[in-house]
Each structure stands twice: as C-alpha cells, then as structure tokens.
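2024-03-11 09:14:02 INFO worker-7 job=invfold-0412 stage=load source=structure_tokens
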C-alpha cells in the first residue's frame, strides 16, 4: 500500500525495470550468450553431477571438461565468439504477432531447433531457437502483475493501474521487442536464414 503522492516515484521505478528488460536482459547479445550457455549446460546435465546446486565457477569448470559440444560452446563464450542472429521476428505489428502465434503453436524451441538443424544440414547445437517472451512469462510472471494498492486522499484504496495510465500501458507492453530469434555460428548464417525463411514464412 502506497500513498497517492508516491505514485510518480513508483512509476519511475517501473519504467526503469521495463527498460532493464528491454535494453539489457533481453538485448540480442545478452540473449544469444544466455541461450548458448543454457544449451551447453542442458547438453551436459548427465555429465555434471549436482548441476542444480552449483555456483557459476563450478558450472564453468564442469563445462570446460564436458563433451565436445558443450566444451566448444563454452570456449566460444569465453572468447566472445558468439553465435549470430540468422532470422528474427520483431514485435512490430499485428501481422508479426499473428505470425509468431502460428509458429509457437506448431513448435517448441527444441522442436524448432531440430527442424532447422536438419533443414540446414548442420550438427546438433549449431542452431538455437529463442522465444524470449514465452520464457519471460514463465520465469518472470510478475512483470505483468502489478497488484500495488494506492491509498487516495479520500482514504479509498485502489489498484495502481486504475489511477496510473503509465502503469496500465506497461502492463500491456511487450517485455521484449523480439518475439523469435534463430542463432547460429556466423559462418552458417546464410543457410540457416534460408531454411528459416522456407519453414517459417
């Protein structure tokens, strides 16, 4: 519960949080690095006992000694030799949202990776599919929940979005400008882009 005079300060905090997700956490380079690390870790789950309770340094040490794929990915991360975006769908208009809805209804990230890897003639792990909004809806459900109550001068209690147009707009704003990203090693971008366009267009 906050006083009505505190609305402006709270709005500034919520805008700052939204900018952090749009500009940092869901920035394309951050997403690529995060997805590469995630796929490397997933590939090595059976070979790194106690994975779930490890701190970063322990996980990195395990990945360095992991199988060929995980070791290669981790080496790329250390040297910032990251994958690049071969295909993307941005949250730009209604048609983009409808296209993404159709794709996400047919594919999961894993099944899309398998399909594009096969179509591109590449090896497992060389194509990564990223659906950041879907991931955020699971990992950060509170982004779309603002249950803060405001105590008005009249002593009435009301939810913040009901008295703050800015807060209401943030609730309906997408948390990322990217709906779908397909990543791969730079040298394979052309063939992965072609396969993505053929399968997803």
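2024-03-11 09:14:09 INFO worker-7 stage=emit residues=201
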């Amino acid at each position: 519960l906050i006083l009505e005079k505190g609305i402006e300060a709270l709005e500034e905090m919520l805008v700052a949080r939204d900018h952090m997700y749009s500009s940092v956490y869901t920035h394309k380079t951050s997403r690529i690095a995060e997805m590469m690390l995630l796929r490397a870790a997933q590939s090595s789950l059976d070979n790194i006992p106690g994975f779930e309770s490890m701190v970063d340094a322990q996980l990195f040490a395990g990945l360095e000694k992991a199988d060929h794929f995980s070791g290669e990915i981790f080496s790329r991360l250390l040297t910032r030799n990251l994958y690049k975006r071969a295909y993307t769908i941005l949250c730009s208009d209604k048609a983009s949202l409808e296209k993404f809805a159709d794709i996400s209804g047919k594919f999961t990230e894993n099944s899309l990776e398998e399909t594009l890897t096969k179509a591109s003639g590449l090896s497992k792990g060389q194509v990564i599919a990223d659906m950041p909004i879907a991931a955020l809806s699971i990992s950060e459900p509170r982004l779309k929940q603002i249950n803060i109550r405001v105590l008005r001068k009249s002593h009435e209690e009301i939810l913040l979005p009901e008295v703050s147009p800015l807060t209401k707009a943030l609730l309906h704003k997408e948390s990322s400008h990217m709906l779908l990203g397909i990543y791969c090693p730079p040298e394979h971008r052309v063939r992965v882009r072609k396969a993505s366009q053929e399968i997803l267009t």
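2024-03-11 09:14:09 INFO worker-7 stage=report msg="Residues 12 and 100 are 31 Å apart (CA to CA)."
2024-03-11 09:14:10 INFO worker-7 job finished
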